[in-house]
Design a protein that fits this description.
This protein has one domain: Nucleoside Triphosphate Pyrophosphohydrolase (Alpha-Beta Complex), CATH 3.90.79. The chain is globular and about 40 Å long. The longest helix is centred in the C-terminal third of the chain and has 14 residues. It is built from three helices and nine strands.
Length: 144
């Protein structure tokens, strides 16, 4: 948040078969949602559209080029305006290069509903960020 104005971010829901690619956020106390599972994406740069931002952020964070991201919705609160997009992940997870975050994983709906997923790197179950869990549950209900 900058002053009293929420930041704008663009986030990607990347689908792979019946799973979703998610990021285990760095476990740094000074960042939003430290050490929890969330979505790849980030802040919009000055003059950037959410569509351009989500493509840029995913490319920067995992080296994956999203093609034709589709808008899912927007989740706003006092911290952020979250623009949500979805797209298929068309490569295996082994082809991705994680450059931001603690870990990544293909997460099932059952794990999302349960509220946590195991991370090999963390060596333990880690929770989902509340907003990220709600977004994913809403997306699955909408997506069918």
């Amino acid at each position: 948040m900058t002053g009293n104005v929420p930041v704008e971010v663009a986030l990607a829901i990347l689908t792979y078969e019946d799973k979703f690619l998610m990021q285990l956020r760095d476990n740094i106390p000074t960042i939003l949602y430290p050490g929890v599972w969330g979505l790849f994406g980030g802040h919009l740069e000055s003059g950037e559209t959410p569509e351009v931002a989500v493509e840029r952020e995913v490319l920067e964070e995992i080296g994956y080029q999203i093609t034709n991201p589709q808008k899912f919705g927007c989740y706003n609160d006092d911290r952020a305006i979250r623009h949500l997009f979805y797209a298929p992940l068309t490569v295996g997870i082994d082809k991705l290069i994680l450059t931001e975050g603690w870990d990544l994983g293909l997460i099932t709906l059952a794990q999302i509903k349960a509220g946590s997923a195991y991370s090999e790197i963390a060596g333990e179950e880690r929770p989902f960020g509340e907003i990220h869990q709600q977004i994913m549950i809403d997306f699955v209900e909408w997506w069918g």
